[in-house]
Amino acid sequence: MSEHTVRFLPHEKSIKVQDGENLIRAAMDAGVHINASCGGEGVCGKCRVMIESGEVEGGITDRLKAGDREKGYRLACRASVRGDLTVLVPVESKVDISALTTQIPPRKTAVIRQVDFEELKEQGLFLPPVEKIYLELPPPTAQDNLPDATRLVSHLSINYNEHRLVVRLPVIRRLPDVLREENFKITATLARPVHEGRKSHIINVESGDTTGQNYAIAVDIGTTTIYGQLLDLISGEVMAEHGLFNAQISYGEDVISRIVHAEKPGGLERLSKVVTETINEIIANLVKKAAVDCDQISAITFAGNTTMTQLFLQINLKYIRRAPYVPASTIYPPIKATVLGLHLGDHVTALVYPAISSYVGGDIVAGVMGSGMYRTEKLTLYLDIGTNAEVVVGNKDWLACAACSAGPAFEGGGVEHGMRAAKGAIEDFLIDPITLEPMNITIGSVRPVGICGSGLITIVAVLFEMGIIDSQGKFDRDLDTPRIRKREDGIWEYVLAWEDITGIDRDITLSEIDIDNLIRAKGAIYSGCQTLLEEVGLGIEDVEEIILAGGFGSFVDLAKAMTIGLLPETDPEKVTFIGNGSLMGAKMSSLTNRIRRDVVEVTRKMTNFELSETTSYMDHYVAALFLPHTDLGKFPRLQKRLDEKRAAKKMNAVK
Amino acid sequence: MSEHTVRFLPHEKSIKVQDGENLIRAAMDAGVHINASCGGEGVCGKCRVMIESGEVEGGITDRLKAGDREKGYRLACRASVRGDLTVLVPVESKVDISALTTQIPPRKTAVIRQVDFEELKEQGLFLPPVEKIYLELPPPTAQDNLPDATRLVSHLSINYNEHRLVVRLPVIRRLPDVLREENFKITATLARPVHEGRKSHIINVESGDTTGQNYAIAVDIGTTTIYGQLLDLISGEVMAEHGLFNAQISYGEDVISRIVHAEKPGGLERLSKVVTETINEIIANLVKKAAVDCDQISAITFAGNTTMTQLFLQINLKYIRRAPYVPASTIYPPIKATVLGLHLGDHVTALVYPAISSYVGGDIVAGVMGSGMYRTEKLTLYLDIGTNAEVVVGNKDWLACAACSAGPAFEGGGVEHGMRAAKGAIEDFLIDPITLEPMNITIGSVRPVGICGSGLITIVAVLFEMGIIDSQGKFDRDLDTPRIRKREDGIWEYVLAWEDITGIDRDITLSEIDIDNLIRAKGAIYSGCQTLLEEVGLGIEDVEEIILAGGFGSFVDLAKAMTIGLLPETDPEKVTFIGNGSLMGAKMSSLTNRIRRDVVEVTRKMTNFELSETTSYMDHYVAALFLPHTDLGKFPRLQKRLDEKRAAKKMNAVK
Questions:
Q1: CA distance B100 to A71
Q2: Which chain A residues in 552-611 lie under 8 Å from chain B, judged by CB atoms?
Q3: How many CB atoms lie within 10 A of CB A485?
Q4: How far is B391 from chain A (nearest CA, A)?
Q5: Among the listed ranges A549-558, A613-622, B64-73, which one has the minimum average pLDDT value?
Q6: Taking the CB of the first residue and of the last residue of chain B, which one, N or C, has fewer CB atoms within 10 A?
Q7: Where in chain B is the domain with CATH 3.10.20.30?
């Protein structure tokens, strides 16, 4: 795809974008504010810009006056970049222009890291857990009437140097007919031992040569969403991916309410059943999408937090939510997929990622495995942000972990207009420093209906850095804009979008209560990281790399996350994003036994810290209940920017 | 119990019997003929004897004339020995007395061998496959909040030196509540690995101390009958035993008809289901008889022939009955009892004895293991006689086996009045050499209804040795008795019991066709033994010990079996009877892992010979179609007796 350069005036900022990029998103990425409160649907008509030169597509709606159109005005939110452009953004006064020099850092998300299957092979780490071998056995005769199973095992032993083989009962059951279907030409599926020298299991036999078809499924069982991937075990490719809401949601949004439900009579079985149904639906969908034969799926791997895993496996988990938070087990034996009610062949064994503790689950272990953190030399901070945030620090020699209850702010909970990252959620935001008019960009470029987690971080960071809220999250009461107002109940709020241009029947606002909830959430995570590092004798400044995981992480503007003090301030280049770490780990285990072997060592090595038992945690937490933190010295870059802004403001005031 | 001596006149034969022994059975055991055709029910009134001295109980019925009673006559079949006796048996002539000197050898059954559990312990062979350990775990605290499963495993590791433990999913599921029921005092059930150093599985946990209750079940799945034993794993005692007809009988009497049925749609599942039902019935009965808690059964072991085993396990067995007679497998992995539909706890694993071939099954392997044949120095012949007879020869260094189709004669099939060993079956027999009147003894001492296998052997042996039939099984047409007659179809037969005293509405007879069927059956077995021994370069005379197995063997009069040429002629002291070898092996495997370990080696060591593929088999078979054999030189003791009888006959003729 071709790239174009877009130059914004009077800001004199340029940015390179892909052909077809939306113009308002280009402005946002360039850190150029354009009034836009309707999220990008072209309803408010405020994002009027003049195309001084170059070609755009679209951007003409009935919100644009006929005269404006001829003059070269377009609605930025409806315009696509089709060539190098020079765009003039209308500003209302000279002051506006000077304000443009005090921009906050441009949007910067983490580098996405994906494991390369070829690299895995090159490193000798590719030890497929399930392999198919095509065999041509000599048919029996009166002089050679070995039992069928013995014939198979002997042939593998003599011709393939395969020893210590176990033939499972279902294979014995069907072996006679399968052998005779194509004159003793068969494909045997072998499940490899995790540890070399242990037994391989012959889990399946098929007539003829089916070695070209061998698939696995990896599943992340999230509290909210369940994702599955169908993997080709030969190429290592992801053939299909599918996600669905965990049907357990109707029994409670968070893990605690699920546990409470599980304690009711029949509750555990019910929750297990519904999550199994969701998983089966995902499997059916994956098989359809990838157009493969379901019988050719040889393995399935699961990762999920401790509660999700144990609900699925129908393990009694009522003590997880009671001090001292003891789970039944953190290790799960391999289980036949059919025993778990999965719609897969009877030869498929389900592998379930081990957990560390009640609140650091298999999803985190999977992330640590999948990201390769356990093999790195560098001191790494692994962070999975959700309602419960989990933190892992360490490297190839040691690992420590902790969980902190962040509350649901990052997932849209506890925030009046908070919502999940879905269509209509404000995901990006800028504000005009003079007019205080917002620039809202929504997921799907439709009328805003709420604020998602990453949007919330950005909004609060921008409001703070622009001096509209102070370090305690309180609005500057003196600002002259109808968008900042006091509610009837005395709470102050900022109106992101007026009722007439929202997708709901009222204004979308962000109140001091919402901001406070975000500060508590980010404070819990930051102090969790800090406490955990201190427990192992280190400081947050020792961290050499940060790995972000979770659906959330992909959209977080790292600079903004550092501005509010969610992440320690560091070079954004050191932050990588692995997306769904849980799914990535499940995928890796499906592809290579090496991970399955290493995970035993990793879980043994990883020390769990109960933050509630750590006295310093509360002190750190209270200190973190500010933007970005009581100790601004921990955020020197931000401090420098704030100082500059303060100086510029004074200058303006002097003018 | 006290013993009494019974002296029979005019025979001048004495025998020691237990107090209360039936007088006619005492006579039979002493080799004293008393006319008795009604089996011992007191109906024919022919067994009138005079008590010359001593005390008997009973023996008085309305068949005894009033005068006779006063004279001291009693019906032997209704009289019990209560003190030392002298009994006069009425004889019709002086000739009778001389004939008494040419008696055939007295009844002699094999020595019954049972494995001694204490001896097993002393020899260090007692390695219980399932063990219970009582544990008092430290309850978790905030500082020690290990997962429950880890707490259990660590405790076992530190305090009991138990390493390499696997905690199964069902245990994980219930562990939390079980631990907290009696303040972390629990009993753990450990399934031991067959091979040292492998993993032990924690298969069950119970609150409190239940180490006193630990049971296993051993099951022999016979084609006709299924036997179960409930074993105390602490004392090694058999707590209860129960047998039931295999409900599969309604789908065919023999293995072939069962296989044929299994090939029909749904047939295999149906046969599996009905045998499982029979087994469940036996389990329920055992638990009731032994008054134990079903949940305290920790293990179950099965042994059965290849067909019975594979029908139970729902293994496709259609190629078993087709040349080259290839079974699906001869080794079966451990299987969860619940998966097999057994009404046992979900912690119970079913172990199934491996087979050697399609026709030498797990029942034979179990017998070889249970009898200890595989550990002996002596060349041993192991013989399990049924419709299919299986032969094993060898010792601790080598083993060879073969199966021969004997036909159903020994189980009452192919013989007009043949029947299973049940109430009313003639099980013992003598004949008056002059009057040719029979002495029938039936199982249960009731009116005869038929002839069981061991009875058949005895009758034919007696008829042959008394010269009533010749070596081809043909009656002496010149004998003057209404009991030997030519049927309308030209077939000669002997009337064992006239209609009026039988339990059926017609005469009970034995025809030349019946005798021929017996000769074919015994010929198949004898030539099977002979061929197998020849294949390994030995002769029947090299056999140092004979082990008889099968329900049949316990009642067989060894001398008679040698007379007809079913068994090679040898010292009866060298013959031991182990009863149900299959059940014995299943029991032994339930008690000690040593057997389970050794069985792998034994099955590897045992060479199967297909007699149908052995050219000499047919020659041996044809030679064995005589009483006792074409080559009488193989039976020197019998030859000597026959010579003596012939001489005595001549003497009588001269007189």
A1: 141
A2: 610
A3: 15
A4: 19
A5: A549-558
A6: N
A7: 1-101
Which residues in chain B have their CB less than 8 angstroms from residue A146's CB? Answer: 326
Q: Residues A156-208: pLDDT tens digits?
A: 999 999 989 999 999 999 999 999 999 999 999 999 998 888 899 999 999 99
Sheet of B3-9: strand order equals: B13-18, B3-9, B85-88, B48-53, B73-75
Q: Of A10-24, A289-303, A350-364, B517-531, which range is least confident? A: A10-24
Would you call B313 and A169 a contact, using CB atoms and an 8 Å cutoff? yes
Please check whether the domain covering A215-352 is classified as CATH 3.40.50.800: no
Residue of B141, B169, B323 with shortest CB distance to A313: B169
The structure tokens 């296993």 sit at B216
- List every span in chain A annotated with CATH 3.10.20.880: 127-207
Interface check A535 vs B, CB under 8 A: no
Flag whether residue B177 sits within 8 Å of chain A, measured between CB atoms. yes
What residue in A sits closest to B317 (Cα-Cα)?
A: A176
pLDDT digits (tens, 9 = 90+) for B595-643: 889 999 999 999 999 998 888 999 999 999 999 999 999 999 999 999 9
pTM of the shown model: 0.85
Nearest chain A residue (CA) to B202? A333
CATH number of B1-101: 3.10.20.30
Asked whether residue A112 carries a pLDDT value surpassing 70, the answer given is: no
Cα A569 from Cα A636, distance rounded (Å):
8
Query: Token pair of A180, please?
Result: 């005779």
**B-chain residue closest to A315, CA distance:** B173
In chain A, residues under CATH classification 3.10.20.30 are: 1-90
CATH topology of domain A127-207: Ubiquitin-like (UB roll) (3.10.20)
Residue B93 confidence (pLDDT) above 60 = no
Which of B147, B313, B328 has the CB atom closest to A328's CB atom?
Answer: B147
CB contact under 8 A, A147 and B175: no
Decide: B191 and B345 in contact? Cβ < 8 Å: no
Instruction: Please give the average per-residue pLDDT across A71-95, as a whole number.
Output: 84
> According to the model, what pLDDT value does residue A655 have?
59
CB contact under 8 Å between B149 and A331, yes or no, is yes
CATH number given to A1-90: 3.10.20.30
Instruction: Report the gap between the CA of A15 and the closest CA in chain B (Å).
Output: 53
Residue A385 has, within 13 A of its CA and on its CB side, a CA count of 30
Token reading at B226 = 């299924």
DSSP run (H or E) holding B473: none
Phi, psi of B149 (to 5 degrees): -65, -40
Q: How confident is the model over A492-527, as pLDDT tens digits? A: 999 999 999 999 989 999 999 999 999 999 999 999
Q: Strands (DSSP E) along A419-506, which ranges?
A: 425-431, 438-442, 450-451, 484-486, 492-497
Chain A CB within 8 Å of residue B315 CB: yes
**How many Å apart are CA A295 and CA A240, to the nearest integer?**
16
Q: What is the DSSP annotation of B246-301?
A: -GGGGG-SSHHHHHHHHTSTTHHHHHHHHHHHHHHHHHHHHHHHHT--GGGEEEEE
Contact across the interface for B610 and A167, Cβ inside 8 Å: no
Distance between CA atoms of B601 and B301, rounded to whole angstroms? 18
pLDDT attached to residue A510: 97
Interatomic CA distance for residues A218 and A238, integer angstroms: 10
Range(s) within chain A of domains with CATH label 3.30.420.480: 215-352
Assigned token pair, B80: 């019990």
- Is A615 within 8 Å of chain B by CB? no
**How many residues belong to chain B?**
655
Residues of B in Cβ contact (< 8 Å) with A337: none
Contact call for A328 and B149, based on CB within 8 A: yes
